[in-house]
Model the fold of this input.
Amino acid sequence: PGTVPSYEAFAASEGTTPDDAYLLPQYATTLAARGRAMPWPPQRSAPCWCGSGRPYGECHGA
Done:
């Protein structure tokens, strides 16, 4: 999964700002190419995407 600091660094490396509407899809594609993409939606027993450490079904999937 991506993080805010890595997204900001990606924006800087692309010579733009994080609020560029075209940047997020490029970032997601880059993460997928690096094998860091997560399936969506996560399985209920998978760790929640928010980083809480709780299962997705008990956190944001509730």
